Every structure is written in C-alpha cells, then in structure tokens.
Amino acid sequence: MAPIGLTDVAITDFVVNQRHGVKGLVDIISPKTLPPCYIQLPEKRVTTEKLIMEAATTGKGALSAPVIPVIDVSDWKNPNVAEEICEAAATLGFFQIVNHGVSVDEQNELRAAGRGFFDLPTEEKKRYWEGSSVSDTAWYMTSFNPYKEAKLEWRDYLKFEYLSDQVDFAATWPTVCRDEVVNHSNRMKPIGRKILEILMNNLNARMEEETLMGTLRMNVNYYPECPDPKLTVGTGHHCDINTLTLLLQDDILGSLYARYGDKWLHIPPVMGAIVVNIGDMLQILSNDRYKSVEHLVMASRFLSRISFAYYCGPSYDSVIEPLREVLENGEKPLYKPTMYSDYMKYYFARPHTGSKTIESIKLP
C-alpha cells in the first residue's frame, strides 16, 4: 500500500473510516513523529514525564503519595483480606490481588491469543468492526468514540459480551482467541463475585447477582508502539461505569495510572496480579463509601501493550440508587435513581474528556 499523507483528515479516514485501526497505521507507515494536528491531548495535557514525576516520592517537607496495595487473597475467609479490600475500595478505588488461583501460564495463553487477533490480516479484523460485525456479541473498534472525538486515542480493542444464558453465545467470536476468552470469564466471574460479596458484607447488604453482575463484558485492549507518546495517550482519563473491573495488564512499566486528588499514582505490573478497580455503579450503591476514580493508560514508544479488562455490571434494566442498608440511619442519598442502560448510553455518547458521568445524576 502506498504511504498516506500525514494530514489530520487522511489519517483519521485511514484509521477509522477505512477500518485499519491504529495498528494498521503503525504497520504501514511508522513515522518518527505524528503531526500535532492529529492525535493530541486536550488543553490540559497529561504527558508521560508529568505522570512519572507526580508518581515519584515528593520532595522534603511534602507527603509522599500512597501506594496501590497488593493483597494476597489465597485465603478469602481471612478477615484481614476483607479489611484490606474494603479499605482500598474506600480510599484509592484501586488495588491488586495475587494468589487468586489463575496461573501465570493461563494468563500468558490469554495474552498470546489476544495478540493473535490483532496480528490477523486487516481484512479479517474488519469483519468484526463495530456496526457491521459478523457477531452480535463481539466488536472491533479503535479509540473510544472515534466518530465524535476531535482527537483519537492510541488504542484498538476487541470487546466481548458474555451471554451465559445462551449456549452458543461465543459461536461467532474470532476463533484465534475464542476459547481463551471464554475460559477467562469462567476464571474471573467467581473472583469478581468474592470481591463483591466482601464489599457488600461491609455495607451490611446482600449480594444481589442481577444488580452487581447482571452483565459481564470484556475489552481486549491493544496499544501499538507510538512514535511520539508526548502527542497522545493510550486511553484518556475516565472512570469505569460498571460495578467492578478486573484487569489483567502486561509487564510494561509506566502505562497505567489512577488519580489520587491532584496526583496520578502509577499502578505497576506485578507478576500474576489482577488489578481491581471500583466502578461508578458501586460508588452510587454505596453512597460514596467506595470510590470510582479516574485512570488512564499512557502510550509507549518502544513496546506494544495488551490488557484484558473484565467488567462486572448491573443488568441493563436495573435501577441503581444508594442502598437502603446504607441509608437506614437517616443518611441522605447523594444520587438520584438511574437505569443502567440509560447511564451507559450517556457515557458512551461522549469522548474520554475527564468529565465524570456520575456528576450527571448527583443530587444537589
């Protein structure tokens, strides 16, 4: 294929309208730098250098930033495990778990299968492009909302929806990764349930499956090598809208960051660990006891990155509001009731700009 002109219109057309994704751009052109008019962060830019500086221990006379905890969950019944999980959910919104029963070999098989999809010929991947996918439950796309964003993210992804009530829900998924993606859900679902049971028990509330895990989805995120990470971001700063996210990241340092006040905390890769973060729905249900915090992914100049985000969320017709168990002592609700499907529509209609969707349903 002949090189394309490095203009805003030409590249966006190639990546989005011609459905090559960012990886397709990297595969054929790999320029030393990208034109600033194309993929660039908004006015308040967050660069790799800025994040690394903020993640480091501050200077003399200042407080050092907290560290995202790594929790050993080999004994789920240990009260210390529940205490650490609830503390992290209430203060940082993020934590990592190890000794959870999913082996490193199983994780590596999933990573290889995920990369296998993005290494397919472009025409094969295009069959799953969102809006015209051959599957009703698997979609391939680039950035977050590329048809409305002024500037794109440096990310392609393949997303899946698990419909466990249908025997053949995965029949039309890409064969290169289908079995591994199905198996991953079978491993993640009980882990998510255990964490949610702990968090609900801490609120003296029952574990309601439909409200907390009525929908199960996963994104396989692929971040190609980026010629100039200063001009772009892998995934813009955002909060997750579900109840709980279980993330399997790879071993590339300096990629994932979570907001803590006006700082960004680095979430380093830990061998075999699963990163867990709280979503908006759990913050609403807990009436702000648990925190859904902004996070982002930086692009890398030298290495491609792949991650697997497993989302536990309410059923689409669930109406979410602060739990009565949380309000039983007279505490006022902070959020008005919202149907999860309506919340999702509002969230996915906007780009990743850092504005919090949860503010739209907050009571005065």
Structural summary, described in words:
This protein is α+β, with helices and mostly antiparallel strands and 364 residues long. Helix content is 30%, strand content 19%. It contains 11 helices and 14 strands. The protein has helices at 8-17, 21-28, 48-55, 79-91, 104-118, 122-126, 178-202, 209-213, 280-285, 324-327, 340-348, and strands at 70-72, 94-98, 138-142, 156-162, 215-223, 235-238, 244-248, 256-260, 263-266, 274-278, 295-297, 305-313, 319-320, 338-339. It has an 8-stranded mixed sheet. It has a 4-stranded antiparallel sheet with strand order 6-11-8-9. The protein has a two-stranded antiparallel ribbon with strand order 13-14. Helix 4 links the parallel strand 1 and strand 2 (94-98). Helix 1 crosses helix 2 (21-28), helix 4 crosses helix 7 (178-202) and helix 5 (104-118) packs across helix 7 (178-202). The longest helix has 25 residues, at 178-202. The protein is globular and about 60 Å long. The chain starts with 7 loop residues before the first helix and ends in a 16-residue tail after the last helix. The model is unreliable at 35-63 (pLDDT under 50).
